[in-house]
Design a protein that fits this description.
single chain, about 70 residues, mainly beta, 3-stranded mixed β-sheet
Length: about 70
């Protein structure tokens, strides 16, 4: 499940979750990549309120819901 939260710290931003890899039950093998649709690059990304990162790729994830922040 993906929920994208957009923070307009530097203007309008639009993003979508691009490629995904499903997690194997009981293992942290899932992941996804975010695609920036609108807004100025570079964007920064945060998963579940964690530290912002420059990379749009998140990996080693367990199955479950995640909240993505793009600024």
């Amino acid at each position: 499940t993906f929920r994208v939260v957009v923070q307009e710290a530097r203007g309008s931003v639009a993003a979508r979750v691009g490629s995904t890899q499903a997690a194997v039950c009981g293992r942290n093998t899932g992941g996804f990549t975010v695609t920036l649709l609108e807004g100025r690059a570079p964007a920064r990304y945060s998963l579940n309120g964690g530290t912002l990162q420059d990379s749009p790729t998140f990996s080693n994830l367990a199955a479950g819901p995640y909240s993505l922040r793009v600024i």
